[in-house]
Amino acid sequence: MPATCPFAAPLFPATLIRISLALLGSLLVLSCRCTDVTRPLQPGTQTPVDLNILTHRVLQISGDGRILPKLKGLTRESKRRFAGKYESKETTEGAYLREMFAELRQRQPRHIIVLSHGGLATFKAGLNRAVRVEQDNTLKLWRPNADTAFLYLNWNAGFFSTYGEHLITNQGQVQPLRRPLYALYGLGILAPLHLATDLGRAAVKFPLNALQYATEPALFSIGLNRPSNFYKFGGTQRNKQVHSVNLISERLRQDYLNHRGRTDSTLQISMGENRSKGAFYYHVVQPVLWLPSRLATLALGEAVGRPAWRSMLRRTQTMFHRPVADEFSAVPLAAQPSKRLVAQASRRERNTRYLSQPGVVLQFVDSLEAYRKWRTRQEPAAARAGATVTLMGHSMGCIVMKNILQESLLQPRERRLQCDHIVFMAAACSLQDFRYAVAPYLQQHAQTRFYNLTLHPYREITENMIGDYTIPSLLRLPLDGSLPVMIDRLFTDPLTLNERTLGRWHNFVLAAADSTFLPASIRGRVTIKAFGSGSRLELGPQIHGDFGSPRLAEKNCDVFYPHRFWTRKFREAE
Fold it and tell me: What is the model's pTM?
């Protein structure tokens, strides 16, 4: 192979040293971002914490699974609007949650909606989304007698934070960089080695990634095919797998129409129409025009996207089970520790900050179920309908919700969270997660309904991070495909269909043909809905980020999104 080939040039140690020195400043910034500046709540701390009103709505969780006592990411406008209305002297995690639900008991809302945002969202992005939902005038959430309350699980899934955590992580353990020795080990040794491994892996796997991405079953042979006919029911036979999806979709749809009105027999299915245009330009001219930049983004996705994805997955786990267990975790957070235990905990905190205690989301779920039972008892016995709980997740937020359901199944029946609605929007979890977590929960809770919302399958494969196929644009530099497509073909290595993402119509419909995937006992309580392809203001979400977004920038005008994701109309089959 000629020496000029970029894949033939070896990575000499001198080159690696130069790269490491050039990026050292960036690594320092990344490490600061992935190490929370605000100290999480710890048992025994004595400093009172000032809370604002959003503290009773938003649960901010650090990368190691601890509550942050002071909200991070508030804008100046949000601070002026919300700050100074509530103060708290509670400093333990248990007391923090008690105060959070004490505010709910004062308002006594009957409907609780728990939201979790997806990946690549920082504290600021997640918090601003919560602020925008609260500011929606149609909800009137600030009224004392508001019957609906939103609770937000806000976790730092920003790219810089997660990839920076990957660089200093040693077999799942994040080094506490506050100590000089750990900082030298993490930044001076681990970071260059991880960086060299990422770059080398991207170079070696580049041809294979390009081939696998190009032969994606939903992407293959679309170039000269008319996209408006690509995903019609019973349409094209050009690709056998796509043809199978079309036939199964048509069969499921007809089954639903024949049994409409009966919720105990058939899967509820809905799919919007396709109004695509400009097929040749967007699928032939654009890929050729921006081929170099798209190949570069493919290599970049392997080098930094895959490690960042793994760090995000790690953070969805530390919310429930922290990295390492220590003896102090056996002490209930609600108990008042003795001075000796406080001193030991403080010394341990100084020395090993990242030691484990039970994840805060498990405590949050216990408090939520306790409130649901309490609120149900407040109603008259003659008309007791009970409080309702809705779990909603977008993208990687669905992994958080899946973990809640999975952990709930491990609890005794009297302690399990009773959930009425589960809404997954463009879920990044796998079909296997549905099979082993969501489906068993539905089987054991006959009143629970599940909704799987997806983009139109054509929009899944034509979405671009820059530009949109409905708006002529020359800046479609990255690869086409939504985040679930990139997860299936770039960030993970699925061995079977069951390991591909749940939030794609293509995957879910193929899996739904298997009776063991959707048992007859739950099919009537499962809805899959793909939104139409066209105008987002008329038909609903057109890109991955439209899900879970209360506002939408349309023609340089920041307006409230007309398709509010928390309403029943948004998730019900049409």
Answer: 0.82
